[in-house]
Design goal:
homodimer; alpha+beta; 7-stranded mixed β-sheet; two-stranded antiparallel sheet; 11 strands; globular; EC 1.3.99.41 (chains A, B)
């Protein structure tokens, strides 16, 4: 019953009119991304996921993954065939380097496609998503030998990848890892230990699974400084590239969880499995962070992707379902009731969702662009700026973006009334699926701490100052245009709240680290409000600028302007109370002892 | 693995110190509620639900209800036996009138107990909860004959009750009801139609189920003005009170839903079932509203109950789980890591939950008190004031209270990190269960419209003015006490936002009803923030006043004061941005046509 259409028109508007991809055409990273190719990727990719993957989303949730007695895992009906089509269509290779069989497309383009992929089927999207992260880690830190051995088949998607960090006793605090890696005479290691919550850890869709595993070598410090990263294939790979014998890693069980049932979340038991060091010994955390940062942007996209598909369905329901009358008098007097769409509170939920989704989409695409520019911008200064922005925005896109995903999914479920709670309508699945994105790849609280504890302070606050400069500059420019001045004024106020909060953090966070910790979450949210506010300023500017053009989609552009006004009226003012929360400090948060929280 | 202890200490503090139940001892409604009896109810009731019902909560979710081929429904293992114990313990009869076998306890006491019942097992609590609503409707509108026939066994709990409003084509808009009631020669009616989403609609726990059903008599207007209310027993009841033949109502299917799996949500088919009119013909909606208003307060309690049990578990996990180090240096250097409890962002979630839960508990109990006073206060003026406050607060307790329940459950799940997403830990169930409370008994958007569209304007705004007067009076009093002045000042600011928003609504809502509709939700939230703020002012005042007393629980009282400070620092300031949302009007919300929401 649910539906999905890739929002290609909006993606194109952002890429072409807001970001103006053609401005970067001369950079090597964008050589493959001509407008024709980008449009083909969006159109065909959108069609592929809507036709092949979306129909498996609900059945995948209902069936879930099944661990068989021999430890193998069967994915839901149709997943295996759809994955084959996905690989054959080359969709896995979009952003990967040509050297290993990739299409070398810039991040901004693969980001656009991945949003669609997630909307269509988040549980499915995680299989290639984790592979992509593993590829990134091997690319950045693997030896040439390891790269040549594993990357071609991972880039093509014939083999999938995983990230193995968590153990029963350790999640966020990776220093507590117990998995051991014993060096062998042949240069390999024997890996022994138990990993939990391993997404896509075992399944029947690919010929091999390449696990990237954090473990400790003998004598390594018992802290995060003693961690090394290993590649551990499910099947050993012979020198000729063919599949060899089964390695000592097996799926002990799969978790029963709230959502993403189509993805196998495994307990993996390593029992003297053969592994090879990736990068340097005891530098595993840094290597894993490459993977995690890519993954965090990908998880932020999950917030966006789920929000979009939930929204599309809520819109349809609001137009189909008739209940009650418009407050201003019957809209459709010939019918027994008007559509839900006439009710201001239903419209509030739809407008809120629309404004957050389109703003978040622009932010994710802009984030993708910064990743590209951080590698390939023309000069060092521009590369540094882009790298600073990626660092600053990653925890915001992940943390704030996934909070929005859950909020939008919940609101869109609310539009359905009682039917929203019933499985067959599909909306409750979106809420359950969206929920995990706030938790994994570092909880959103961890993202907030990353933002406030690391990213703000890095290099003397260079990143946040650059961000402020950019926002303030664009506000000043917009204020000259009477059609944008009101929006710019409201964004300026929000920016002022964020700047004041940053000052407050600078003044208090060092003296009392708990003040920084207590302020982190509202600060992250405020940064999200301002960053998406900047996106809306840009979208409004672009829409205003395009209105007179030949062949302009006037209705679409006017809709952008209305939605920007909604953002300015109803969302930007939220920074005021977030600032009050930041400035409240940590006293009342940290005052109580554990006993004070007991019921009796 | 989850745990639950009834928070009797906090309930007693509110009843004894904040509300001061002894002040009402002379009123007939409170004759049965001596401190000894109230404490016995809380202690024994808390123990009963924790020991008998809580252990069935998780298994009930996992097993769910099953419809058998003959249309009967089997509840999860243990439910039937537990329900028998519940009835035998007399827990059903607490608030019911003595005339029909009840204990005549005031609402405030049954409210306190029902919170515990919900915390222990929300799906179970719905069976007696719906019975209670059906009892209320029969008491208010049933003939003496109907009362005598049905009430004794419903009050005891031997028979359960249901509310039958929704049909496939009609939820909020009851005017669309199609179910027909044909009058018969013997004074009964034949009821024919399909009802959906009927909670506790069919099950194996009671000898009979008494359905209260909305239907239309021949020739009745095809609108909400044509609706009548009927009582339709599952089994006809003979004149001697014994169970007679099966009536023509059957369960067609049970819904697969997001949560509350232990409660059977049924499609009920009425096929010429025998029913009897409750109250007057075509006055069914008014009669049903008695039931719905009671039910709405009960649903608000579901927000509280789920929040409390989720919170207790998050506290335990935060104390048990070790991960990372305190920002201010290791707290437990002898351990490999500190507990989650040391992290300010974890503490933020716990403090936020604590402040909202305890405030909401006070509000629910105060609401229960107002229900009592609306019937039994000494003079007409006091009864009217209480009735006004019940009217004003009911949509807030339901709408804002259940939003808080979902938010707290989500935050407490978040404390668990990855384990929060795994079914066996129990936290994800709380989120799924909490979600329905925002939807049923009128969605929270409907509550907001009820508040703004009906309750604000009623009798020239008398209720909200009385509320303002009460809050302002207590602020003025508190400002004289230097220990309370800061809190009072912040509450005053929040009250000012609410007053300004009310003025804005008065000035704009009549001219443009869509402005009222667009403002309704943030206005409801703001009212919730202020109402719970008033509760915290009272709790802080009571705590301050009790600190010096003999035998005072000093730690508990000091904890109250810290939590009040948290509320003032971090929650009260939220009214500023809610006010901005109210005052933004409806222009940007209502400007777009349906087409503007389409993806392509």
């Amino acid at each position: 019953m649910p539906r999905y259409t890739a929002p290609v028109r909006d993606t194109r508007f952002i890429i072409e009119k807001v970001i103006g991809l053609d401005r970067y055409a001369e950079l090597p990273a964008f050589a493959t991304a001509s407008p024709e190719i980008v449009n083909a990727v969006l159109d065909e990719g959108g069609k592929f996921v809507a036709e092949q993957l979306f129909p498996l989303n609900q059945s995948g949730d209902q069936q879930g993954c099944k661990r068989n007695d021999d430890g193998s895992v069967t994915t839901p009906e149709g997943f295996k065939e759809a994955y084959k089509a996905f690989v054959e269509g080359g969709w896995m290779t979009l952003g990967a380097p040509e050297e290993f069989g990739g299409q070398n497309m810039p991040h901004i383009v693969s980001t656009a496609f991945e949003e669609y992929l997630i909307s269509a089927n988040m549980a499915f999207a995680m299989y290639p998503g984790l592979t992509k992260g593993a590829v990134a880690a091997l690319l950045a830190h693997g030896s040439q030998e390891l790269k040549e051995k594993y990357l071609p088949k991972m880039v093509s998607g014939e083999w999938t990848g995983t990230m193995n960090l968590t153990e029963p006793q350790c999640g966020t605090d990776l220093g507590l890892i117990k998995t051991k890696a014993e060096p062998q005479a042949d240069g390999s290691y024997e890996i022994t230990g138990t990993k939990i919550f391993i997404s896509a850890g075992e399944h029947d869709m690919a010929d091999n699974i390449i696990h990237l595993v954090l473990a400790k070598t003998p004598g390594a410090p018992d802290s995060s400084k003693g961690i090394s990263l290993f590649v551990v294939p499910k099947f050993l790979v012979n020198d000729d590239g063919s599949i060899g014998e089964r390695n000592g890693v097996s799926c002990g069980s799969i978790e029963h969880k709230m959502g993403i049932h189509g993805n196998a979340t495994c307990v993996l038991n390593y029992d003297g499995a053969k592994g090879w060091l990736v990068g340097e010994e005891m530098k595993g955390l840094a290597a894993m962070f490459v993977m995690m940062n890519a993954a965090r942007l990908g998880v932020g996209l999950q917030g966006l992707g789920i929000a979009e598909v939930a929204f599309q369905n809520a819109v349809q329901y609001a137009n189909d379902r008739r209940q009650g009358r418009a407050l201003t008098g019957p809209k459709d007097p010939e019918e027994k009731a008007d559509t839900l769409f006439v009710h201001p509170d239903v419209r509030r939920m739809l407008m809120e969702s629309k404004a957050q989704i389109e703003g978040l989409r622009a932010l994710c695409l802009w984030g993708g662009l910064q990743v590209d520019l951080s590698h390939d911008a023309g000069d060092e200064e521009a590369r540094e700026l882009a790298d600073d922005l990626v660092g600053l925005l990653t925890p915001v896109i992940k943390g704030y973006g996934t909070d929005l995903g859950y909020k939008v999914a919940t609101d869109c479920q609310q539009v359905y009334g009682g039917h929203g709670y019933i499985a067959e309508w599909g909306m409750e699945q979106y809420v359950r699926d969206a929920r995990i994105a706030m938790i994994y790849e570092g909880t959103n609280g961890v993202q907030a701490m990353d933002l406030v504890g690391r990213k703000l302070a890095r290099k003397g606050g260079r990143a946040v100052q650059a961000f402020f400069k950019q926002v303030a500059g664009e506000i000043a420019e917009a204020k000259k245009d009477e059609k944008l001045a009101e929006f710019a004024g409201k964004l300026e106020k929000a920016l002022g709240d964020m700047q004041a909060s940053t000052m407050w953090l600078a003044a208090n966070g060092m003296k009392n680290p708990n003040d920084a910790g207590a302020a982190a979450y509202p600060f992250m949210e405020m940064t999200g409000v301002v960053a998406i506010g900047l996106m809306w300023l840009r979208m409004a500017t672009a829409a205003q600028g395009s209105l007179g053009e030949d062949g302009a989609d006037t209705k679409f552009l006017e809709t952008k302007l209305v939605t920007a006004r909604y953002y300015a009226d109803r969302i930007l003012p939220r920074t005021a109370s977030l600032r009050a929360q930041v400035e409240a400090g940590s006293d009342s948060i940290m005052a109580l002892e554990p006993e004070a929280f007991e019921a009796a």
